[in-house]
Amino acid sequence: MSLWRRLTASRAQQEAEELQRDVRAEHVTAIAECAHGEVTSVSGTVRSITLRPKSQNPALEAEVYDGSGSVRVVWLGRRRIPGIDPGRRLTLHGRITCPGEDKTMFNPRVELKPSP
After folding, report:
1. Cys-Cys crosslink for 92: which of 28, 29, 68, 108, Cβ 3.0 to 4.6 Å?
2. Which tens digits make up the pLDDT trace of 5-47?
3. For position 25, which CATH number holds?
């Protein structure tokens, strides 16, 4: 990134570019490039975690961001997965579905990355 770009870019833009560099280095697919039905690997940072209410079937949901876009990750039958917290870097392996506008992965295989 050029000096001028670093000085004028917002913090969010700088973080997105940094995440994209990491994605390219790990040789995984950028979330923005994933297509419906594709089995793929993506890498990013957990932005948020949501637990479905107890009245429904238990499910843990997370939003993972890689600088190009986000994917909603749903683990059915889970209330918590140790190590998956907001801010954590991880790599997901699974099938992308696109119900409506949202990209979603159900029960992907997860690799936790070291915390910064």
Report:
1. 108
2. 555 667 777 776 776 777 777 788 889 888 999 999 999 999 9
3. 2.40.50.140
